[in-house]
Amino acid sequence: MTKQTHAFQAEVKQILHLVTHSLYSNKEIFLRELVSNASDACDKLRFEALDNNALFEDQPNLEVRVLFDAEAKTITIRDNGIGMSAEEAASHLGTIAKSGTREFMAKLEGDQKKDANLIGQFGVGFYSGFIVADRITVETRRAGAPSDQGVRWSSEGTGEYELEAITRATRGTDVILHLRDEEAEFLNTWKLKSIIGKYSDHISLPILMQKEEWDAEASKQVKKDEWETVNKAAALWARSKSDITDAEYQEFYKQISYDSEAPLAYTHNRVEGRSEYTQLLYVPAKAPMDMWNRDKRGGVKLYVKRVFIMDDAEALMPVYLRFVKGVIDSADLPLNVSRELLQESRDVKAIREGSTKRVLGMLESLADSDDAQERARYLKFWGEFGAVLKEGIGEDFANRERLAKLFRFASTHADEGVSFADYVSRMKEGQEAIYVITADSLAAAKASPQLEIFKKKGIEVLLLVDRVDEWMLSHLYEFEGKELQSVAKGGVDLDKLLDDDEKKQAEAVAESFKPTLDKLKAALADRAKDVRVTTRLVDSPACLVTDEGDMSGHLARMLKQAGQTAPKTQPILEVNAEHALVKRMAGDDSRFDDLAHILFDQALLAEGGQLEDPAAYVARVTKLLSA
Ligand code: ADP
Questions:
Q1: Atom of ligand 1 at shortest distance to CA of 37?
Q2: Which of 327, 475, 323 lies closest to 396, judged by CA?
Q3: How many other C-beta atoms can be found within 10 angstroms of the C-beta atom of residue 1?
Q4: What is the DSSP letter of 427?
Q5: Who contacts 517 (Cβ-Cβ below 8 Å, separation ≥6)?
Q6: Separation between Cα atoms, residue 599 and residue 534, nearest integer Å
Q7: For the chain, does the N or the C end have fewer beta carbons within 10 angstroms?
């Protein structure tokens, strides 16, 4: 075969133009693509050799070599894989077989211009060489073919390519990039090694580069006749669990997380079934600074068959597990799948579900451990990440029960570590609901007047003081059939907490208080949705509660702080008819109006609210004090 010139398929021309012009911002990916092709070629040889061992010829060790020539300005990616025949070179490197080319081009022209991950998606990785090269020469021979059936493919990446027959003793492929003048930075051992380390460390084949030594006379680095493996050549996660030490797991965590502290826990599994993948996932011990940013991408790296695809593949983890770090290596996904495609992929959905279960399982085994130290570790985790995990209640319907079991709170019994299960086990005879109160701080929660009757009766109340708790309550209504009830809501059924004598007494008090109550209602008609007598108070004269279905005062204040407008709802004033102050009001007609407003204002202050008219409040109190 003499030298022949062929025109590229029309699509290839377009692709070439786009690739070289659009992906320029991330040029180093050419090496990843070509090393990955080389590694694939070796995989194909290994596969074909299963039936025909002779294909290995005299080179049974599969490998990739990366070499460069600073004078000639070339980089060569050499493999001893399957190689290509002349027909294969023409069809694989001159046409695009895959469908979806048009779609690919539309994307490159569109918003994701810069997303270099798109390039491999439609099987055009080879052309990325033209980002840095103005000519690519491929010399190749198919495994098993005689040495005179080698082929040289060459192109400047514009309209056409040349093919010619060559003699090539070794099987496999050399891809020789003739670099553009301005790409000389890649003609450097350190640079190439670092790119290989970044993208191809975990390719399971060895990637070799020539050793260098300093030649003092010439005063430059010269290459030695020795080769060294520059990638790790064995992915930790692809090894068998039993061969990996705890120290190796810890070291790997440090490498991928840049966290100096050891992880809290990790899980490593190979999953087979509809979707095949390996997961190695870590829970860090400490929350990073930007934990609260829900837009922060996750910490899971995606590999496909040991080839690094992308960092922070957020589609692999639900948002509420964004603190998880690690690696997922899929056997099913196409190499270099884009982020966008990840969001839509069913394989990815299966991976996300499987990984979520694993992480929850890992947390459960700490939380429910028989070992007190493990449980203490879980509490430490909860302190760091609990508020993030709570987001899961609204986000992950399928796992809400498992999540709720993992939650820990402060309560009127203990300042931390109270689970719903603990609470339920301490519920009083006849108690049906799980009582909760939300507040800005533990101190404020503990001081809430709404708690008084519960304290008196020894009934536990969960104290919810995280900012996400209000939101959580809007998604979590019950635990194992027990309704969650806010003690700051008007609807909470207090009658059940009283014995018969107390009930009778309460009824009598309410009856005799009725005329005063009507006056109070009239005095506060503009401020309170309703005024009523309550049994929930012991030491305080009054408190505010929210009508069932209305937004709590605490949530409304949080929204306001966040710059949002909360719907304007009026609270209900509940008064303790047996309190000295309230009793006195009944017979104090001249000051009744002032006292009524002070009662309301103080109830508002007590729950951490802000007075609408502080000056009026101060004037009233001053008037009273000076009378
Ligand atoms: P993809 O690898 O996604 O199929 P590429 O554009 O990178 O797309 O490569 C096109 C085809 O060229 C490959 O599918 C393969 O058949 C062939 N090829 C590329 N590099 C090599 C190589 N080093 N050895 C053998 N075949 C190769």
A1: 20
A2: 475
A3: 10
A4: P
A5: 531, 532, 533, 575
A6: 14
A7: C
Number of residues assigned to the chain: 627
Tokens for 141?
């021979």
For the record, the structure tokens of 483 come out as 């309704």
Residue 226 Cα to ligand 1 middle (Å): 29
Task: At 497, list the tokens.
Answer: 């907490």
Q: From atom 17 of ligand 1, which residue's Cα is the shortest distance away?
A: 92
Q: Give the separation between CA 244 and CA 104, rounded to whole angstroms.
A: 41
**Phi-psi category of residue 224: left, alpha or beta, with phi > 0 → left and psi -120 to 50 → alpha:** beta
CB 288, CB 245: distance < 8 Å: no
Q: Model's pTM, two decimal places?
A: 0.64
Q: Kindly give the number of the ligand 1 atom that is closest to the alpha carbon of 175.
A: 23
Task: Using the mean position of ligand 1's atoms as its centre, give its distance from the Cα of residue 327 in Å.
Answer: 26
Q: Which atom of ligand 1 is nearest to the CA of 336?
A: 3
Ligand 1 pocket, Cβ-based, cut-off 6 angstroms = 37-38, 41, 79, 81-84, 92-93, 120, 123-126, 173
What percent of the chain is helix, strand and coil (3-state, nearest 5)? 45, 20, 35
Cα(335) to centroid(ligand 1), Å? 12
Are the beta carbons of 46 and 103 closer than 8 angstroms? no
The amino acid occupying position 137 is: T
Query: For position 99, what pLDDT does the model report?
Result: 55
The helix (run of H) or strand (run of E) holding residue 533 is: strand 530-533
CA dihedral 599, 600, 602, 604 (to 10 degrees): 160
In this structure, the residue with its CA closest to atom 10 of ligand 1 is 92
Handedness of CA 343, 347, 353, 357 (dihedral sign): negative
CA angle 559, 400, 288 (to 5 degrees): 60
Residue type, 85: S
Q: 561: Cβ–Cβ under 8 A, 6 or more apart, which residues?
A: none
| pLDDT for res 402 | 96
Q: Which structure tokens are listed for 377?
A: 């570790």
Nearest CA to ligand 1 atom 20: 37
CA of 31 to the centre of ligand 1 (A): 13
CA of 111 to the centre of ligand 1 (A): 27
Q: Which among 18, 19, 40, 176 is the best mutation to test ligand 1's pocket, defined by most ligand atoms within 8 Å of the CB? A: 40
The number of helix segments (H) and strand segments (E) in the chain equals: 21, 22
Match 């009054």 to its residue by tokens.
542
CB 531 within 8 A of CB 517: yes
Q: Please give the average pLDDT of every successive group of 10 residues along the chain, which has 627 residues.
A: 86 81 78 90 84 90 96 97 95 74 64 50 75 96 96 93 96 98 95 88 86 91 92 84 88 76 93 91 85 67 80 86 94 79 87 95 96 95 94 93 97 95 93 92 91 92 92 92 89 78 90 93 94 90 88 79 80 93 86 94 88 94 89
Tokens coding 215:
């030649």
Residue whose entry in the numeric block shows the structure tokens 């070499």: 67
Distance CA 416, CA 414 (A): 6
Residue 5 Cα to ligand 1 midpoint, Å, equals: 20
